[in-house]
Specification:
mainly alpha; Cytochrome Bc1 Complex, Chain D, domain 2; 2 domains; globular; periplasm; iron
Length: 217
């Protein structure tokens, strides 16, 4: 998709979703090719189409970014820009968006989302959440799955390059675990660490962990 078409599509989408009402303290623009546009404005007027203005997306196809670790989000945006992250959803939605982002804009986007408050989902299956709690904090000894908390923190808030998982969409977590398990599309950087972990999780165990994390604050 060339730049002109991309701008038209984004503009139409913004109007269709009511994003034209979003206001910024600074500039007002939807031009992805202007390096002077702040990350905050991009977040409010472009990224909000899919991720929500506060980073709490409604559609589980798109991850919740509210409260995300800046180092992780910076790494992922740069991976989309360089095409090092090539999972299907990333390729479909993020390559075109990220390709003209400057390092400054990426840093500002990461800080913007870090400052937003994550909103957890609601418990649907208590037993499944309890199973996920046990796996997250203690791992699965029988299949050498380490405790998720050892990297992502005891509350799932992440740190440095390890992402925040608390409050993330259950379906999105499941999709990413499947990507790690069955493809090399996210093998770059720290993604390589997740492949053996995801491979040794059963489908039900993955669902339990995802259900648990989705309802954590």
């Amino acid at each position: 998709m060339n730049k002109a078409i991309l701008s038209v599509v984004l503009g139409a989408a913004l109007l269709a979703t009511g994003c034209s009402d979003f206001k910024s303290d600074t500039e007002s623009t939807r031009n992805l090719n202007d390096p002077s546009v702040s990350g905050r404005t991009l977040a409010e007027q472009v990224c909000a189409i899919c991720h929500g203005v506060d980073g709490n997306s409604k559609n589980p196809v798109f991850p919740r970014l509210a409260g995300q670790q800046p180092a992780y989000l910076t790494e992922q945006l740069k991976a989309f820009r360089s095409h090092d992250r090539s999972d299907v959803l990333g390729y479909k939605y993020m390559w075109g968006i990220a390709r003209n982002l400057t390092n400054k804009q990426i840093d500002e986007l990461a800080q913007y989302y870090k400052g937003q408050t994550a909103i957890p989902g609601q418990v649907k299956e208590t037993a499944l959440v309890a199973q996920g709690d046990a796996i997250f904090h203690h791992g699965v000894e029988a299949t050498s799955v380490p405790a998720c908390a050892s990297c992502h923190g005891p509350q799932g808030h992440g740190h440095d390059g390890f992402p925040r998982l608390a409050s993330q969409h259950e379906d999105y977590i499941l999709k990413q675990l499947s990507v790690f398990k069955h493809t090399n599309d996210r093998y770059a950087g720290m993604g390589a660490m997740m492949s053996p972990v995801a491979y040794n999780l059963s489908g039900n165990q993955a669902r339990a962990v995802a259900a648990y994390l989705s309802v954590q604050r």
